[in-house]
Specification:
five-stranded mixed β-sheet; three-stranded antiparallel β-sheet; 17 helices; 14 strands
Length: 413
């Protein structure tokens, strides 16, 4: 028997003078320790009794991480001290991210967000429910007949994307290209901050180049698709500036192609391993509908950041202007101080707390569509596939990043 030496050649930033050594932890948001056991489980393992509420990691360019739910919430709701000027890590990559209005702070952010909400508010989402349901049924029925599928590949990577592309009146043939851009932004490849920045910057430019001719073609149009409506909307009574239109439509594409896609697969892995949870809602549609928010509490996928807007002492820790602070939303929903027995999925949980959709002025504009897609998926799936499980020997592959992902989700029934 021989020992195997693991060589850790990850680039580490030097510890700034204002960072106490006692708060330094090696936490890699793109390669979490223990992630082979599950993305949420890997983050949750950090919430030990001796873990400070805020720590600093030298990895990914060097940045702070908050580890408690209350602190995640506090930062989301305090744009005056924690700016959205840079929200992606490493900072070198985040500085190249140009999507609107996520990279804005109030009051500049407010009119753009108001415009975005016109296409994604509850009344508008109710109008597309029939279309969303039809898309789910079209995918699920042939899967039900074959008795097995790779849920990530055959459903989760298709359904929300198909819904979004229809709402935007864009061809499905463009999805592989756009999905690659989304992946390179939310899980950028590279071994150094500079390499990751180059990948994210190229992907951001790719989105902009894709939407440029689409915006030009739809300016002045009267179509009912969400892109036409947004690019012909107004900001403070005036047409939206072209660069801001590029950023807003690119954001729509990014969000539509990478978040619900991954959330659904995490949900189905859990349900496949817990048939008793499926049995609780199989014949109780009202319980299922009420419990959808619990799914979002239990399976957050986003870890974005904020930039410290000015020097401040926050909860006894000195933060400097320009410091980056990572907000793993999973550490809000899975914090025992916020939700008792947090790893348990409780369809009837009362007073649940989470930051899955962010918070404050940047609370996710697409949350109503995400809730509809999750509800319709489970309703139509359980009608046709009431019992299912992970295939024997299944080994899902988890990826962490700005948006977490999972692949290889073989289900059988």
């Amino acid at each position: 028997m021989s020992d195997t030496t693991v060589i850790d050649n990850r680039i580490r930033a030097p510890r700034p003078a204002h960072v106490p050594e006692r708060l330094v932890r090696d936490i890699d948001m793109y390669a979490l320790d223990g992630i082979e056991q599950g993305y949420h489980e890997a983050w949750k393992a950090l919430q030990t009794s001796d873990m400070p509420g805020i720590v600093w990691t030298p990895l990914t360019g060097g940045h702070w991480i908050v580890t408690r739910g209350a602190l995640v919430k506090e930062i989301y709701e305090d744009p005056a001290r924690f700016s959205s000027e840079v929200i992606f890590l490493p900072k070198e990559a985040g500085e190249l991210y140009s999507m609107v209005p996520t990279r804005m702070d109030p009051p500049e952010h407010t009119p753009y967000r108001k415009l975005l909400d016109t296409g994604l508010n509850p009344a508008e989402i109710r109008k597309v429910e029939e279309q969303v349901r039809a898309a789910a049924i079209e995918l699920i029925e042939p899967l039900a007949a074959q008795g097995h599928c790779d849920f990530a590949r055959d459903y989760a990577n298709v359904f929300p994307v198909k819904v979004f592309m229809a709402m935007a009146d864009l061809p499905m043939a463009d999805v592989p290209r756009l999905s690659k851009f989304a992946q390179d932004m939310t899980r950028p490849p590279g071994n150094t901050p500079e390499e990751m920045a180059a990948a994210l910057g190229a992907a951001n430019r790719g989105f902009d180049a894709y939407v440029e001719p689409i915006i030009k073609a739809r300016i002045g149009g009267s179509g009912g698709d969400i892109i036409t409506r947004l690019v012909n909307g107004t900001v403070n009574g005036a047409p939206m500036p072209h660069d801001k239109a590029l950023g807003m439509i690119s954001l729509l594409l990014l969000a539509g192609l990478d978040t619900v896609v991954n959330f659904l697969s995490f949900v189905m892995i859990y349900l496949a391993r817990h048939p008793e949870k499926v049995a609780e809602v199989r014949g109780d549609d009202m319980k299922l509908r009420r419990g959808i928010e619990e799914l979002f509490r239990r399976f957050p996928v986003v870890s974005e950041a904020r930039m410290v807007a000015k020097d401040v002492v926050w909860h006894g820790v000195e933060l400097k202007h320009g410091d980056m602070v990572l907000l793993p939303t999973v550490l809000h929903g899975l914090d025992e101080a916020e939700n008792p027995d947090p790893l348990n999925l409780d369809w009837e949980r009362k007073g649940l707390h989470h930051a899955t959709f962010g918070g404050g002025p940047h609370r996710c504009a697409g949350l109503h569509l995400a809730r509809l897609e999750a509800t319709v998926t489970l309703q139509e799936w359980l009608k046709r596939i009431p019992e299912f499980r992970l295939a024997p020997g299944a080994n899902p592959i988890y990826h962490s990043g700005i948006v977490a992902a999972v692949e290889n989700v073989p289900l059988v029934w």
